[in-house]
Write a structure and sequence with these properties.
Blueprint lengths: L4 H16 L3 E2 H7 L4 H13 L3 E4 L4 E4 L2 H13 L2 H15 L2 E8 L2 E8 L14 E2 L5 H8 L3 H8 L15 H14 L2 E4 L6 E9 L5 E10 L5 H5 L2 H17 L5 H15 L1
Antiparallel strand pairs: 1-3, 2-3, 4-5, 4-9, 5-6, 7-8, 8-9
Length: about 270
């Protein structure tokens, strides 16, 4: 349950509707909600009025609203690496003939912001817009490994450590040891830790000062690839990651300077 007051609670409800992955009835939401019936209903009505949710009176179901599509598109354009990285991902995927993922960390989890499929796509969990676990994915571990020590320790407490396969790391201690190895060699692996038969190699996308901007991975199946083969792709991955990082740091939002000056003036007027 959120501790951010009314707005935080409304976002909790929005997340709950989204988690069902389909239109959902009030009774189903209530059974899984921490809020009383009247409170939940009030939040749902507010979200519907704001077009963040849509209500189908015939089926009596709630679903995510179209306003979120506009907000998601704006976030994708303004806050994600995807627009900058797209041509680099296209070139890398075409050159290697393999699936390439681009991701960023979101509240300790992996948010896939873009994906370029191989010439022969492989069915797997990851899709742009999906949230995945950080502790058992290559791109997640690559991003965790290069966080500042205190932030890394905090993020380790946010992992679920659910065992997906026989090779999943299921404790903070095991993950911390793995992250130490990743920092030493500069890249991470997914050794069928999230999905059976799926392996990958991943690298972080780092700023000049070492801040984690995101992560990239090259993924395939154990039928077609080996970890040794993927390791040979690390130089290509690092080169692409550096190119993405350079463009990300050079990119300036239109009007950013003017907005900042106006904000500073407004803050000064309030003092």
């Amino acid at each position: 349950m959120s501790g951010d007051g009314t707005v935080g609670k409304a976002m909790d409800v929005l997340d709950q509707v989204a988690a069902f992955g389909r239109p959902v009835r009030f009774a189903s939401l209530l059974s899984a909600s921490p809020y009383p019936k009247a409170t939940l209903y009030r939040f749902l009505q507010t979200l519907v009025r704001q077009r963040l949710l849509e209500y189908d009176p015939e089926r009596q179901t709630y679903a995510l609203g179209v306003r979120l599509v506009r907000l998601a598109h704006a976030a994708w354009s303004q806050s994600s690496l995807a627009p900058i990285a797209r041509p680099h991902l296209d070139a890398l995927s075409a050159r290697l003939g393999l699936t390439v993922h681009l991701a960023q960390l979101d509240n300790g989890q992996v948010l896939y912001v873009d994906k370029r499929s191989a010439a022969q796509p492989v069915e797997m969990f990851s899709q742009a817009g999906k949230i995945g676990p950080a502790y058992c994915t290559g791109v997640g571990k690559a991003m965790l490994a290069f966080q500042p020590e205190t932030e890394r320790a905090r993020l380790l407490t946010q992992q679920s450590y659910h065992r997906f396969t026989e090779t999943t790391l299921t404790s903070p201690e095991a993950l911390a040891a793995e992250l130490s190895k990743i920092r030493a060699r500069g890249h991470a692996y997914d050794r069928e830790e999230h999905e059976p038969g799926i392996i990958c190699v991943a690298v972080p996308i780092l700023s000049d000062r070492g801040r984690v901007l995101g992560g990239m991975s090259v993924t395939g199946t154990t039928k077609a690839l080996s970890l040794e083969t993927l390791t040979g792709l690390v130089p290509d991955l690092h080169k692409t990651a550096r190119a993405v990082a350079a463009e990300a740091e050079a990119w300036v939002f239109p009007g950013y300077g003017e907005d900042t000056a106006e904000a500073q003036q407004a803050m000064g007027a309030q003092r």
